[in-house]
Amino acid sequence: MRLEIDWIQPVGLSLEETSMTSSHAIASSDHAAADVASVRRVLLAESDALRIMADQQSDIVAQALDLLTVKDAGRVIVSGMGKSGHVGRKIAATLASTGTPSLYVHPGEASHGDLGMITPHDAILALSNSGETPELTDVVHYSRRFAIPLVAMTSQSGSTLAQAADVALILPKVGEACPMGLAPTTSTTLMLALGDALAVALLERKGFSPADFQIFHPGGQLGRRLLKVDDLMHTGDDLPLVAGDLGMGQVLLVMTNKSFGCVGVLTGDGQRLAGIITDGDLRRHLEPRLFDRTANDVMTADPKTTRPNALAAEALHVMNARSITSLFVVDNAKRPVGIIHMHDCLRAGIA
Q1: What is the distance between the alpha carbons of residues 264 and 339, in angstroms, rounded to a whole number?
Q2: How far is the C-alpha of 243 from the C-alpha of 331, rounded, in Å?
Q3: Read out DSSP for 107-167?
Q4: What is the structure's pLDDT at 1?
Q5: What pLDDT score does 348 carry?
Q6: For the segment 90-137, what is each residue's pLDDT rounded down to a tens digit?
Q7: What's the CA angle centered on 192, arms 189 and 193, to 5 degrees?
Q8: With the C-alpha atoms ordered 115, 118, 123, 126, is the resulting torsion angle positive or negative?
Q9: Axis crossing angle, helix 186-206 with helix 59-68, rounded to the nearest 10
Protein backbone atom coordinates (compact mmCIF):
# COMPACT_ATOMS: atom_id res chain seq x y z
CA MET A 1 0.00 0.00 0.00
CA ARG A 2 1.48 3.38 -1.01
CA LEU A 3 0.66 6.70 0.61
CA GLU A 4 0.69 9.78 -1.60
CA ILE A 5 1.06 13.13 0.23
CA ASP A 6 0.12 16.15 -1.84
CA TRP A 7 0.43 18.72 1.00
CA ILE A 8 2.30 18.80 4.28
CA GLN A 9 0.57 21.12 6.74
CA PRO A 10 2.73 22.70 9.49
CA VAL A 11 1.72 21.54 12.95
CA GLY A 12 -0.61 23.99 14.70
CA LEU A 13 -1.57 25.94 11.53
CA SER A 14 -4.69 25.63 9.47
CA LEU A 15 -4.49 25.45 5.69
CA GLU A 16 -5.64 29.08 5.50
CA GLU A 17 -3.00 30.25 8.03
CA THR A 18 -0.28 28.32 6.21
CA SER A 19 -1.22 29.99 2.94
CA MET A 20 -1.17 33.45 4.56
CA THR A 21 2.28 32.81 6.08
CA SER A 22 3.65 31.81 2.70
CA SER A 23 2.14 34.89 1.07
CA HIS A 24 3.64 37.16 3.72
CA ALA A 25 7.10 35.63 3.21
CA ILE A 26 6.86 36.25 -0.54
CA ALA A 27 5.65 39.83 0.03
CA SER A 28 8.44 40.48 2.51
CA SER A 29 10.99 39.19 0.02
CA ASP A 30 9.54 41.45 -2.68
CA HIS A 31 9.74 44.47 -0.36
CA ALA A 32 13.35 43.70 0.52
CA ALA A 33 14.31 43.47 -3.15
CA ALA A 34 12.56 46.77 -3.88
CA ASP A 35 14.28 48.43 -0.92
CA VAL A 36 17.72 47.28 -2.03
CA ALA A 37 17.04 48.46 -5.57
CA SER A 38 15.89 51.87 -4.27
CA VAL A 39 18.97 52.35 -2.10
CA ARG A 40 21.32 51.28 -4.92
CA ARG A 41 19.60 53.66 -7.35
CA VAL A 42 20.10 56.62 -5.02
CA LEU A 43 23.73 55.77 -4.25
CA LEU A 44 24.59 55.29 -7.91
CA ALA A 45 22.82 58.51 -8.91
CA GLU A 46 24.73 60.51 -6.30
CA SER A 47 28.07 58.86 -7.06
CA ASP A 48 27.57 59.58 -10.77
CA ALA A 49 26.87 63.23 -9.92
CA LEU A 50 30.07 63.41 -7.87
CA ARG A 51 32.09 62.06 -10.78
CA ILE A 52 30.55 64.66 -13.10
CA MET A 53 31.43 67.44 -10.63
CA ALA A 54 35.00 66.16 -10.24
CA ASP A 55 35.47 66.19 -14.02
CA GLN A 56 34.22 69.77 -14.42
CA GLN A 57 36.61 71.37 -11.91
CA SER A 58 38.75 74.19 -13.31
CA ASP A 59 40.89 77.13 -12.20
CA ILE A 60 37.74 78.70 -10.78
CA VAL A 61 38.11 76.55 -7.67
CA ALA A 62 41.65 77.90 -7.19
CA GLN A 63 40.26 81.44 -7.31
CA ALA A 64 37.71 80.49 -4.66
CA LEU A 65 40.45 79.04 -2.47
CA ASP A 66 42.43 82.28 -2.82
CA LEU A 67 39.47 84.18 -1.37
CA LEU A 68 38.85 81.62 1.36
CA THR A 69 42.50 81.68 2.49
CA VAL A 70 41.76 84.23 5.20
CA LYS A 71 44.56 85.98 7.08
CA ASP A 72 45.07 87.73 10.40
CA ALA A 73 41.83 87.49 12.40
CA GLY A 74 39.76 86.49 9.39
CA ARG A 75 37.33 83.58 9.25
CA VAL A 76 35.28 81.82 6.62
CA ILE A 77 31.61 82.64 7.25
CA VAL A 78 29.32 79.94 5.86
CA SER A 79 25.64 80.69 5.29
CA GLY A 80 22.71 78.91 3.71
CA MET A 81 19.00 78.29 4.26
CA GLY A 82 17.11 75.04 4.82
CA LYS A 83 18.98 71.91 3.75
CA SER A 84 21.79 74.11 2.40
CA GLY A 85 22.05 75.53 5.90
CA HIS A 86 22.43 72.07 7.43
CA VAL A 87 25.19 71.34 4.93
CA GLY A 88 26.74 74.73 5.66
CA ARG A 89 26.99 73.96 9.37
CA LYS A 90 28.92 70.79 8.60
CA ILE A 91 31.24 72.60 6.16
CA ALA A 92 31.97 75.28 8.77
CA ALA A 93 32.76 72.60 11.35
CA THR A 94 35.08 70.77 8.94
CA LEU A 95 36.90 73.99 8.02
CA ALA A 96 37.39 74.91 11.67
CA SER A 97 38.71 71.47 12.59
CA THR A 98 41.25 71.49 9.76
CA GLY A 99 42.91 74.80 10.46
CA THR A 100 40.62 77.34 8.74
CA PRO A 101 38.76 79.45 11.35
CA SER A 102 35.11 79.28 10.39
CA LEU A 103 31.59 79.70 11.72
CA TYR A 104 28.06 79.31 10.42
CA VAL A 105 25.75 82.33 10.34
CA HIS A 106 22.04 81.72 9.80
CA PRO A 107 20.86 84.07 7.01
CA GLY A 108 17.57 84.79 8.77
CA GLU A 109 19.31 85.72 12.02
CA ALA A 110 21.83 87.75 10.05
CA SER A 111 19.04 90.12 9.05
CA HIS A 112 18.25 90.69 12.72
CA GLY A 113 21.66 91.56 14.12
CA ASP A 114 23.97 88.67 13.34
CA LEU A 115 25.51 90.55 10.41
CA GLY A 116 27.65 92.05 13.16
CA MET A 117 29.36 88.65 13.42
CA ILE A 118 30.90 89.23 9.97
CA THR A 119 33.98 91.45 9.80
CA PRO A 120 35.91 93.00 6.88
CA HIS A 121 38.69 90.46 7.53
CA ASP A 122 36.36 87.54 6.75
CA ALA A 123 35.28 85.74 3.58
CA ILE A 124 31.77 84.44 2.97
CA LEU A 125 30.78 81.09 1.47
CA ALA A 126 27.07 81.25 0.57
CA LEU A 127 25.15 78.08 -0.34
CA SER A 128 21.96 78.02 -2.39
CA ASN A 129 21.04 75.40 -4.96
CA SER A 130 18.73 77.79 -6.83
CA GLY A 131 20.84 80.87 -6.18
CA GLU A 132 17.64 82.80 -5.45
CA THR A 133 17.21 82.19 -1.71
CA PRO A 134 15.61 85.44 -0.45
CA GLU A 135 16.95 85.02 3.09
CA LEU A 136 20.51 85.39 1.75
CA THR A 137 19.79 88.85 0.30
CA ASP A 138 21.00 90.83 3.30
CA VAL A 139 24.16 88.72 3.63
CA VAL A 140 24.98 89.35 -0.05
CA HIS A 141 24.27 93.08 0.20
CA TYR A 142 26.40 93.33 3.34
CA SER A 143 29.33 91.61 1.63
CA ARG A 144 29.11 93.99 -1.33
CA ARG A 145 28.79 97.09 0.85
CA PHE A 146 31.92 96.31 2.90
CA ALA A 147 33.94 94.60 0.12
CA ILE A 148 33.94 91.24 1.92
CA PRO A 149 34.95 88.40 -0.46
CA LEU A 150 31.92 86.32 -1.46
CA VAL A 151 32.12 82.78 -2.84
CA ALA A 152 28.84 81.27 -4.04
CA MET A 153 27.99 77.58 -4.29
CA THR A 154 24.97 77.08 -6.53
CA SER A 155 23.74 75.08 -9.50
CA GLN A 156 22.51 78.14 -11.43
CA SER A 157 25.23 80.20 -13.10
CA GLY A 158 22.77 82.93 -14.08
CA SER A 159 21.23 83.25 -10.61
CA THR A 160 21.26 86.40 -8.50
CA LEU A 161 23.73 84.83 -6.04
CA ALA A 162 26.14 83.64 -8.73
CA GLN A 163 26.13 87.03 -10.47
CA ALA A 164 26.73 88.93 -7.23
CA ALA A 165 29.58 86.71 -6.02
CA ASP A 166 33.27 87.32 -6.59
CA VAL A 167 33.60 83.65 -7.52
CA ALA A 168 30.77 81.21 -8.22
CA LEU A 169 31.28 77.46 -7.83
CA ILE A 170 28.65 75.98 -10.11
CA LEU A 171 27.31 72.54 -9.26
CA PRO A 172 26.49 70.26 -12.21
CA LYS A 173 22.88 70.22 -13.31
CA VAL A 174 21.83 66.72 -12.35
CA GLY A 175 18.49 65.46 -11.16
CA GLU A 176 17.74 64.85 -7.51
CA ALA A 177 17.82 61.22 -6.40
CA CYS A 178 14.30 61.68 -5.04
CA PRO A 179 11.93 59.95 -7.54
CA MET A 180 9.79 63.12 -7.64
CA GLY A 181 12.87 65.27 -8.18
CA LEU A 182 11.87 67.53 -5.29
CA ALA A 183 13.66 66.57 -2.07
CA PRO A 184 17.22 67.98 -1.90
CA THR A 185 19.33 64.84 -2.13
CA THR A 186 21.89 64.83 -4.91
CA SER A 187 22.30 68.61 -4.72
CA THR A 188 23.10 68.57 -0.99
CA THR A 189 25.52 65.67 -1.48
CA LEU A 190 27.36 67.74 -4.09
CA MET A 191 27.50 70.75 -1.76
CA LEU A 192 28.77 68.65 1.12
CA ALA A 193 31.44 66.95 -0.99
CA LEU A 194 32.62 70.22 -2.53
CA GLY A 195 32.79 71.74 0.95
CA ASP A 196 34.97 68.83 2.10
CA ALA A 197 37.18 69.30 -0.96
CA LEU A 198 37.63 73.01 -0.20
CA ALA A 199 38.52 72.24 3.43
CA VAL A 200 41.11 69.64 2.43
CA ALA A 201 42.62 71.91 -0.23
CA LEU A 202 42.96 74.71 2.34
CA LEU A 203 44.47 72.20 4.78
CA GLU A 204 47.09 71.25 2.20
CA ARG A 205 47.79 74.89 1.38
CA LYS A 206 48.52 75.57 5.06
CA GLY A 207 50.65 72.44 5.51
CA PHE A 208 48.35 71.29 8.31
CA SER A 209 50.14 68.50 10.21
CA PRO A 210 49.14 65.65 12.56
CA ALA A 211 50.42 67.84 15.41
CA ASP A 212 47.93 70.53 14.38
CA PHE A 213 45.18 67.91 14.28
CA GLN A 214 45.89 67.00 17.89
CA ILE A 215 45.43 70.63 18.96
CA PHE A 216 41.95 70.75 17.43
CA HIS A 217 40.99 67.14 18.27
CA PRO A 218 42.13 66.54 21.87
CA GLY A 219 39.21 64.25 22.67
CA GLY A 220 37.84 61.01 21.29
CA GLN A 221 39.55 58.31 19.31
CA LEU A 222 41.28 60.74 16.94
CA GLY A 223 42.77 62.65 19.86
CA ARG A 224 44.11 59.44 21.36
CA ARG A 225 45.64 58.37 18.07
CA LEU A 226 47.48 61.69 17.85
CA LEU A 227 48.98 61.67 21.34
CA LYS A 228 52.75 62.05 21.28
CA VAL A 229 55.35 60.20 23.32
CA ASP A 230 56.12 63.30 25.38
CA ASP A 231 52.45 63.47 26.38
CA LEU A 232 52.78 60.11 28.16
CA MET A 233 56.44 59.56 29.04
CA HIS A 234 57.94 59.55 32.54
CA THR A 235 60.69 62.07 33.21
CA GLY A 236 63.08 63.34 35.87
CA ASP A 237 63.59 61.22 38.97
CA ASP A 238 61.28 58.53 37.56
CA LEU A 239 63.90 57.53 34.99
CA PRO A 240 65.70 54.24 35.78
CA LEU A 241 69.25 55.31 34.90
CA VAL A 242 72.59 53.98 36.20
CA ALA A 243 76.27 54.61 35.57
CA GLY A 244 78.09 52.05 33.47
CA ASP A 245 80.53 51.16 36.26
CA LEU A 246 77.80 50.55 38.87
CA GLY A 247 77.79 47.07 40.37
CA MET A 248 74.92 44.76 39.47
CA GLY A 249 73.73 44.58 43.07
CA GLN A 250 72.98 48.30 42.99
CA VAL A 251 71.60 48.02 39.46
CA LEU A 252 69.02 45.49 40.65
CA LEU A 253 67.93 47.85 43.44
CA VAL A 254 67.35 50.67 40.94
CA MET A 255 65.48 48.34 38.59
CA THR A 256 63.24 47.15 41.42
CA ASN A 257 62.53 50.64 42.81
CA LYS A 258 61.69 52.22 39.45
CA SER A 259 59.35 49.35 38.40
CA PHE A 260 59.88 49.57 34.64
CA GLY A 261 61.51 46.17 34.33
CA CYS A 262 64.67 47.74 32.93
CA VAL A 263 67.39 50.31 33.53
CA GLY A 264 69.23 52.56 31.12
CA VAL A 265 73.02 52.57 31.25
CA LEU A 266 74.73 55.92 30.72
CA THR A 267 77.98 56.64 28.93
CA GLY A 268 81.06 57.53 30.95
CA ASP A 269 80.23 61.24 30.93
CA GLY A 270 76.76 60.46 32.30
CA GLN A 271 75.06 62.27 29.40
CA ARG A 272 74.04 59.77 26.75
CA LEU A 273 72.33 56.39 26.69
CA ALA A 274 74.87 53.62 26.05
CA GLY A 275 72.73 50.57 26.68
CA ILE A 276 69.88 48.94 28.54
CA ILE A 277 69.51 46.08 31.01
CA THR A 278 66.22 44.21 30.97
CA ASP A 279 64.82 41.19 32.75
CA GLY A 280 65.94 39.16 29.75
CA ASP A 281 69.52 40.36 30.13
CA LEU A 282 69.48 39.29 33.79
CA ARG A 283 68.27 35.81 32.89
CA ARG A 284 70.97 35.46 30.24
CA HIS A 285 73.67 36.42 32.75
CA LEU A 286 72.26 34.53 35.70
CA GLU A 287 75.28 32.92 37.37
CA PRO A 288 77.00 33.07 40.79
CA ARG A 289 79.38 35.82 39.60
CA LEU A 290 76.56 38.15 38.43
CA PHE A 291 77.03 40.48 41.38
CA ASP A 292 80.72 40.79 40.57
CA ARG A 293 79.85 42.37 37.24
CA THR A 294 79.04 45.98 36.35
CA ALA A 295 76.23 47.44 34.29
CA ASN A 296 78.56 47.75 31.30
CA ASP A 297 79.24 43.99 31.46
CA VAL A 298 75.57 43.00 31.30
CA MET A 299 73.87 45.67 29.20
CA THR A 300 72.66 45.40 25.63
CA ALA A 301 74.35 48.21 23.72
CA ASP A 302 72.55 50.69 21.44
CA PRO A 303 69.01 49.81 22.50
CA LYS A 304 65.94 50.71 20.47
CA THR A 305 64.67 54.17 21.47
CA THR A 306 62.04 56.67 20.40
CA ARG A 307 61.74 60.45 20.01
CA PRO A 308 59.74 62.83 22.24
CA ASN A 309 57.71 64.07 19.25
CA ALA A 310 56.94 60.60 17.89
CA LEU A 311 53.33 59.47 18.00
CA ALA A 312 52.60 57.27 21.00
CA ALA A 313 50.96 54.80 18.60
CA GLU A 314 54.29 54.48 16.79
CA ALA A 315 56.09 53.73 20.06
CA LEU A 316 53.50 51.11 20.95
CA HIS A 317 53.99 49.48 17.55
CA VAL A 318 57.75 49.24 18.18
CA MET A 319 57.18 47.66 21.60
CA ASN A 320 54.75 45.12 20.19
CA ALA A 321 57.03 44.27 17.26
CA ARG A 322 60.05 43.70 19.52
CA SER A 323 58.12 42.07 22.39
CA ILE A 324 59.35 44.65 24.89
CA THR A 325 57.39 46.70 27.42
CA SER A 326 59.38 49.95 27.67
CA LEU A 327 61.22 52.39 25.41
CA PHE A 328 63.68 55.06 26.43
CA VAL A 329 63.03 58.46 24.90
CA VAL A 330 66.15 60.30 23.73
CA ASP A 331 66.82 63.69 22.15
CA ASN A 332 68.93 64.30 19.06
CA ALA A 333 72.13 63.96 21.11
CA LYS A 334 70.99 60.54 22.44
CA ARG A 335 70.48 62.00 25.91
CA PRO A 336 67.69 60.15 27.75
CA VAL A 337 64.81 62.55 28.46
CA GLY A 338 62.09 60.06 29.33
CA ILE A 339 60.77 56.52 29.28
CA ILE A 340 57.41 55.24 28.04
CA HIS A 341 55.81 51.97 29.10
CA MET A 342 53.32 49.91 27.14
CA HIS A 343 50.81 50.34 29.97
CA ASP A 344 51.00 54.12 29.54
CA CYS A 345 49.78 53.73 25.97
CA LEU A 346 47.05 51.28 26.89
CA ARG A 347 45.78 53.49 29.72
CA ALA A 348 45.55 56.37 27.23
CA GLY A 349 43.34 54.24 25.00
CA ILE A 350 45.96 53.65 22.30
CA ALA A 351 45.73 50.13 20.93
Answers
A1: 10
A2: 19
A3: HHHHTTTGGGG--TT-EEEEE-SSS--GGGHHHHHHHHHTT--EEEEES-TTSHHHHHSSE
A4: 47
A5: 84
A6: 999 999 988 899 999 999 999 999 999 999 999 999 999 999 999 999
A7: 85
A8: negative
A9: 70
